[in-house]
Amino acid sequence: MPRHLHPSRKTFARFASRQPFQFGLPNVSPELAQASDNSPVYFTRTNSLLRQQVLGNAKGVAIKSDAFRFQVLPRDCWGKADFSKSSVLFLIPDDALGDCVGMTLFLRAFLQRYPHAKTAVLNSAAASDIFALIPDLAIFQLFISARNLAQFEYVIDLSEMEGWKDIATMPVNPEEALCEAFELAPVPLEKRDVSFKPGINIGIVPMASSPLRTLPPELVGKISTLFARHDANVTIVLNAYQGVMKAYKAALGDLAAPNIRIVDGFKTIGDLVQFVSKQDYMVVADSGPAHITKLFQTPGLGIYSSASAKTLQGRHQNLRSWQSGFVGPYCQAPCGLAKLRATPDGKIGCMGSLNVAASVLSELPQKSDPALARTLVTENPVPCVAELGQKSDAILSLLKTELSLDS
């Protein structure tokens, strides 16, 4: 084990089990499920689903500690170490799809530089299917045994990358930040040309995890109708795991064209990844699927509101971008907020929707407000999202020009 280590930022639960066990998340491909291996102890993040909902009530399980920290290689050593024949375990900070796509792209660059390194990820959780696109990468979606941990010479906490602490208020590009930190050249990109023809497969993914980044239903309906009128096969993919999905689907109305279908969502992230890989063109909100297009260089249009398209797309030019141009008395797009925030007296929103300065919105909401979320995505969107709807004609014109469509 190398010297000059320090504790990981996040704490892990250290537990033992007298009985064999296996565990897999419902939205992850079954083949990535994990099983015990008779190790004396195991480790999982203290805030993971496994720790919070399973271990505390499981027979034969003993929690040894909830304050365990791995000894990890410090950030200032990442670019100096030689990983040529090393075994490296990367701790994944969270399972947000966009961030994990960036980390997957970084791992491609890492293995391009160190093809004989043995690599693994821990805490990939719901994003495990994304990491599974890398051949021979070991994936520990929720826990690792002491036996497996002992195989790794280096443990690296990726939350030490620049900008991670502030990612909730100012998005970063993990691929760019990590390649710079490890002094790696990113993998070359293959260009996929846009070629419209009847029968083309077009995927539209309008929903993000936040109302700040979800596209107006009326805009999505207009885009879908445009493509359908030119004999494209259009699939609108919603997210059944989000509480606002039914309301959003109702707001789309009756898209009667036979070549438009609406999918409530996919069972696993692996199914979503496969869907993106098979599309000829995509229209996406600032969401995980927008980032997944980078893995296949799928061409399309990314429509952005609160986050910067330039920051999120980085070097990837497969998506043409449209950025909300909203300017108001308290903010202008892109403001950098990834999620709704709360005022000290509990009002939930953003600077534009609440007409307050950014300094007033210092906290994330302590509890969800489903009714507010439904209103924001269907009836009264935040100003930067509403501006996208107001510019629908210009967005349609851009699509017509790029895909050489007549009116």
TrEMBL record:
The record's Gene3D superfamilies line, in alphabetical order, gives:
Glycogen Phosphorylase B (3.40.50.2000)
Q: What is the protein name for this chain?
A: Heptosyltransferase
The record lists the organism as Thalassospira povalilytica
